[in-house]
Design goal:
Blueprint: H1 3-17, H2 27-32, H3 36-45, H4 56-69, H5 71-76, H6 80-91, E1 95-97, H7 103-110, E2 116-120, E3 124-128, H8 131-141, H9 144-167, E4 169-171, H10 172-183, H11 189-197, E5 204-207, E6 212-215, H12 221-229, H13 240-247, H14 254-262, H15 270-285, H16 290-298, H17 306-321, H18 333-343
Antiparallel strand pairs: 1-3, 2-3, 4-6, 5-6
Helix pairs in contact: 3-4, 6-8, 9-10, 9-11, 9-13, 14-15, 14-17
Length: 377
């Protein structure tokens, strides 16, 4: 989407979200100024059945009851940051000055029917709770059991994120068991399903029909699961320290090594190096062959001689062997080969460059007559 189209889309969104309103508007007032289409979005979000064909005023009455009856569930599904914003709204008598970083949360609130927006006094853009919802929301958001549940919800989400960082995809029963082990306590399966798996988040998806969860970066979750089923070893054991490492969003392990390798090129800045690293790691974990990864990385370098290119190839090959793989249940190729050797099984070889393949340095020669002549890989 070009810049003009983005500005046009933002302008339309602004017009929809920020009409003139009054501070004393109740829920019915806000629902009344919404379109029938927007009201149906709330109906879908709350999973209210059998009312889609009602006229607008009749639909508003049903939505008022539905929104109020669903408050507990709606608030419990919010992430920690969204709960904090809601808490600030409640503590400020239902009104909070809006900034553009809140747009995603605002839209989520709006289509849950608990927080709306507008312009007050012809100048201030605000997020606002309908007057008749402030007290019910306050009772829920400031209730200590709810806060404890929110903390638990955040912990579960972090653990699932950590598990999937290493495994890519898990069936729901296995994820529940692994999460309980890391929490060191019994977790009710239904609570886990509703508060950790089904909840909206930026990290993973839940396929309710197939009962699997997988990172959003995983391209072929069923293929990964099929590959995992061939591995006789258990999943790589995960600790809470490993979970915290993942959730810190800092680069570590092979990510850090690739990042440092890219920074050897003075034309690549830190931000670009980080972006290239993340993309490359995801491609590798999705099963991209090593020779493709090398070919892509070669585009960012202009080597002065063959020796320099060979050193680079050796470095990437070593990093590749130390990168955790989703199809290997979180183990690196090096670790899995070591496990198989200890068991006396056949060594698994992954995406080795063929001697007759075109050389990844771009010379146009076969690999065996170019970089492969010195057995650099």
């Amino acid at each position: 989407m070009n810049k003009d189209a983005m500005l046009d889309l933002y302008s339309k969104l602004e017009n929809k979200l920020f009409n003139k309103i009054k501070e004393d508007y109740n829920l019915k007032d806000f629902l009344t100024i919404m379109t029938k289409e927007e009201l149906n979005e709330i109906r879908k979000k709350l999973e209210l059945k059998g009312i889609s064909n009602l006229k607008k005023q009749e639909l508003i009455v049903e939505l008022q009851n539905g929104i109020l009856n669903s408050l507990d569930n709606t608030i419990n599904k919010l992430n920690n940051e969204e709960k904090e914003i809601l808490k600030s709204l409640v503590e400020n008598k239902g009104t909070y000055l809006y900034n553009e970083k809140m747009v995603d949360s605002l839209i989520k609130y709006r289509y849950s029917g608990i927080v709306f927006s507008g312009i007050i006094n012809n100048q201030d853009k605000v997020m606002i709770i309908p007057q008749d919802l402030i007290l019910p929301i306050k009772e829920i958001i400031l209730d200590s059991p709810t806060i404890e549940k929110a903390k638990c919800n955040k912990l579960w989400i972090d653990i699932i994120r950590g598990l999937l960082y290493y495994y890519g995809v898990l069936d729901i029963e296995c994820a529940h068991k692994l999460t309980a082990n890391l929490c060191c306590k019994k977790i009710d399966f239904y609570d886990y399903l509703m508060e950790a798996v089904s909840v909206e988040n930026p990290f993973y998806k839940y396929n309710s029909e197939e009962r699997i969860i997988y990172l959003k970066e995983v391209e072929k979750p069923f293929y990964i699961m099929h590959q995992q089923s061939k591995i006789k070893s258990d999943y790589l054991p995960i600790t809470m320290d490993m979970v915290h490492e993942v959730c810190s969003d800092e680069l570590f392990g092979s990510e850090k090594e690739i990042y440092n390798l890219l920074l050897e090129n003075p034309k690549i800045n830190e931000s670009e190096a980080r972006e290239i690293t993340k993309k490359l790691i995801i491609e590798i974990r999705n099963g991209r062959p090593l020779k493709d990864s090398l070919k892509n990385l070669f585009e960012f370098f202009n080597f002065k001689n063959l020796s320099e290119a060979n050193r680079f190839i050796n470095s990437v090959s070593r990093i590749y062997s130390k990168t955790i793989m989703w199809n290997l249940k979180g183990y690196t190729p090096y670790e899995m080969n070591k496990i198989n050797n200890n068991k006396g099984t056949t060594v698994i070889k992954h995406n080795k460059i063929g001697r007759n393949d075109p050389c990844i340095c771009g010379s146009g020669k076969k690999y065996k007559k170019c970089c492969g002549a010195k057995k650099t890989i």
